[in-house]
Design goal:
With 178 residues, the chain is mostly helical. Helices cover 68% and strands 0% of the residues. The radius of gyration is 48 Å and the shape is elongated. The mean pLDDT is 79.
Length: 178
């Protein structure tokens, strides 16, 4: 409560004074820029004098070409300097953001999407990927057991039963095993 509050009319008055001072400063800077521009033009571009002979005209063209080359080199150097400065500014902005730690992860929405649709979204519409897991499995050859072969080679099952029926059949079974 020790601070005194300013009335709104006083705030408005101060704000208008600051704006008028700033406007005057901007106008003065603009005038200085124009004066610098005129001075540079007078130094760099002497008044045009039309040559009277062909040789004078050729000399003037050569001089103009030399000046154009010099200006192009200067422009190229300034462009590189500006690009380098912009890169440095971007790097410093990233460093400042890292130091401040104010980078917030955006909250991501949960989206139900199949694996095929997700791959299509990531790889683009040009690449159509079919996620068929069974196609990626190895093919294994089935080994046929000897017992299975014997069962297949038995032949007609009725004959086999008739042979084994009665005591004679059982006797043959035991004799075959022994």
């Amino acid at each position: 409560m020790s601070e005194k509050k300013m009335s709104s009319s006083r705030k408005h008055h101060l704000k208008s004074l600051m704006l008028s001072i700033a406007k005057g400063l901007l106008e003065e800077e603009e005038r200085e820029r124009e004066a610098e521009k005129l001075q540079y033009m007078e130094e760099s571009c002497p008044p045009l004098s039309m040559p009277r002979t062909m040789q004078e005209l050729q000399e003037m063209c050569k001089e103009i070409h030399r000046k154009i080359d010099g200006i192009d080199e200067e422009r190229y150097d300034l462009e590189n300097k500006v690009n380098k400065s912009n890169k440095e500014i971007d790097d410093l902005k990233i460093k400042v953001q890292d130091v401040m730690g104010k980078f917030k992860k955006p909250v991501l929405k949960k989206v139900r999407m199949s694996a095929d649709a997700m791959l299509k979204a990531l790889l683009g519409s040009k690449h159509t990927v079919n996620l068929d897991l069974r196609a990626n499995l190895k093919q294994v050859k089935k080994e046929v057991k000897d017992e299975d072969k014997d069962l297949r080679d038995v032949g007609d099952w009725r004959k086999n039963i008739e042979d084994k029926s009665g005591m004679d059949g059982r006797k043959k079974m035991f004799e075959a095993e022994a």
